[in-house]
Amino acid sequence: MCSKIVTLTADSFDQVALGPNQVAVVDFWAPWCPPCRALAPSIEALAEERPDLVVGKLDVDDHPAIAERYGVSNIPTVIVFRGGEVAERCVGLVPLDHLRRLVGANDQASANAEATA
I need a surface site. Which of 1, 23, 36, 54 has the fewest CB within 10 A? Predict the structure, then answer.
């Protein structure tokens, strides 16, 4: 797994993924799931491209209560959190471009503007 991806657990999820001033992309997955494994390179690429995001993976078998909290019944499910709230969601194997659209190009421009201000 890419070093820029955070492994989320029930203990760390709220603190890491639900920060008030951040955008987090969480991949709800399981190691036995072929579409989840096929999505992994796109999640890794997004993490590399977007250091302004928190990109994390949560194993639904190890942490089912978190998956239940967000109504995740099919995997892979990717949820984008903005300021601690669910902003976007997609289910199934999607291409990297779809993930980019979920997080939005405007987020990168905003992050760059804040960094230079």
Answer: 1
